[in-house]
Amino acid sequence: MSTRTFRITVRGVFDGLGTDQRAELLARAAEHDVLRAAFTPEGHLSYDIAARPAFTFRFLDSGEAEDDILEATERAEEAARAWLGARGYGYKNLRSQAEDLSQAPLGKRQRREAARKGV
Q1: How many CA atoms lie within 13 A of 98 on its CB side?
Q2: What is the CATH number of the domain that holds 102?
C-alpha cells in the first residue's frame, strides 16, 4: 500500500483579542505573512490582522488508506486549537478542508510527463 499525502487547511477568526494580544500578532505578522504560507507537518499559520481577523493554518500529513484523511483532519484541528489555546487567543468559526493529493487532478506538466512515460 502506498503512502497518501494530505493537505489540510484549518481556517477561523480571531475573537476577543486583547490589546496586548493584537500587538503581539502585529509584531509577528511578517513571519505569518500569506506570501510565506506553506503546508508543513507542524502547521503554518498565516494572517493579516491589520486587514481582518481571519487566520489560516496549513498542515501536511499522510496516511495509508483513504479514510486516514479524517484522522489527519482531526489532528490538524486539534493542533490549531492547541496553538491558539496555549497563547490565550480566542477564536470562532473554526472549519477545515482536506485534500488527498493522490486524488488531485494532474496539472498540464504532470499529464505531459505521464504521457511521455507511457503511464
Answers
A1: 22
A2: 3.30.70
The rounded Cα 10 to chain-centroid distance in angstroms is: 5
CA distance 82 to 104: 29
Q: What is the pTM of this model?
A: 0.85
Q: Identify the helix (H) or strand (E) that includes residue 58.
A: strand 54-63
Rounded CA separation 67/1 (Å): 13
Distance CA 93, CA 101 (A): 26
pLDDT digits (tens, 9 = 90+) for 33-89: 999 999 999 999 999 998 999 999 999 999 998 899 999 999 999 999 999 999 999
Question: What is the extent of the structural domain holding 71?
Answer: 4-117
